[in-house]
Write a structure and sequence with these properties.
The structure holds 2 protein chains of 2 kinds. Chain A is an all-alpha fold. Chain A is 47% helix and 0% strand. Chain A has 2 helices and no strands. The longest helix of chain A is centred in the N-terminal third of the chain and has 21 residues, at 3-23. Chain A is elongated and about 65 Å long. The N and C termini of chain A lie far apart (70 Å). Chain B has a 5-stranded mixed sheet with strand order 3-2-1-4-5, with helices on one face. The relative contact order of chain B is 0.20. Chain B contains 5 helices and 5 strands. Classes of the chains: A mainly alpha, B alpha/beta.
């Protein structure tokens, strides 16, 4: 292996180490203030959920689901 | 640079990564680290010797922590004379978050702040809140993950009674 190849391998290895150290940050249980915030909830808006559900069952329920069969016509 | 040196360097880097990310959680039978060595903000009790101690880790943003406060207030009142001390260790990054929380949630027990989040790292907890029941010698006797209302409170009472009898 010539010295150029060795340098390339060394650079690649260093790059991999540096990126693995900075790219993945684990959030500790005591650092979850932001994640625990109300605005991070997927179900924080009841009206938005109802609208999404309605569209979902109107458009996507051709094979049934959520207790109501829909034709997929968007007419419910 | 030869390839064996490269391999060694890579191995060292990975090992260091594993060591840095691994955290050993405190478990039953372990000695709890001395609180005085963590530069906690707030006044600790003068001595924990021969006391049954609950060390509880909490934060203002954590709802189960909030739910646990009335129970801990009552437990502290009920067992204070028999030798129970509750020390609630706050883990908020902003001190004002803790202060605002305490304005609305008065406590009958000791509250200190782990501003550097060193003690909580040492304890290696996985859930907020988490608490450790220590016996008179400072050994961990019971560990709680989370707070599940009346069920947890009942467990606390049974465990405190068992430790106070000894």
């Amino acid at each position: 292996m010539n010295s150029f190849s060795k340098k390339i391998i060394l650079l690649a290895a260093l790059g991999a180490i540096v990126s693995s150290q900075t790219g993945c940050e684990s959030v500790q249980p005591w650092q979850r203030k932001t994640l625990a915030d109300y605005t991070m909830r997927g179900n924080r808006d009841p009206m938005g959920d109802a609208i999404t559900d309605h569209i979902f069952f109107s458009r996507e329920m051709a094979s049934g689901g959520k207790g109501v069969g829909g034709g997929g016509c968007g007419c419910n | 640079m030869n390839t064996s040196l490269l391999k060694k360097l890579t191995l060292v880097a990975f090992s260091a990564g594993i060591v840095l990310t691994a955290q050993a959680a405190l478990k039953v039978g372990d000695g709890f680290p001395g609180l005085a060595g963590f530069s906690l903000e707030g006044k600790l009790p003068d001595s924990l010797k021969d006391k049954v101690v609950i060390v509880d880790f909490w934060a203002s943003w954590c709802n189960p922590c909030k739910e646990s406060f009335p129970a801990m207030n009552e437990l502290q009142k009920k067992y204070r004379d028999r030798g129970l001390l509750i020390i609630a260790v706050n883990e908020d990054e902003e001190k004002s978050d803790m202060q605002d929380f305490l304005k609305d949630n008065a406590t009958t027990f000791t509250v200190v702040r782990d501003a550097k989040q060193k003690l909580v790292g040492e304890a290696g907890i996985q859930t907020m809140p988490s608490s450790f029941l220590l016996d008179g010698t400072g050994k961990v006797r019971f560990v709680h993950s989370g707070f599940h209302g009346a069920e947890t409170r009942k467990q606390y009472e049974q465990e405190i009674e068992s430790l106070l009898k000894k």
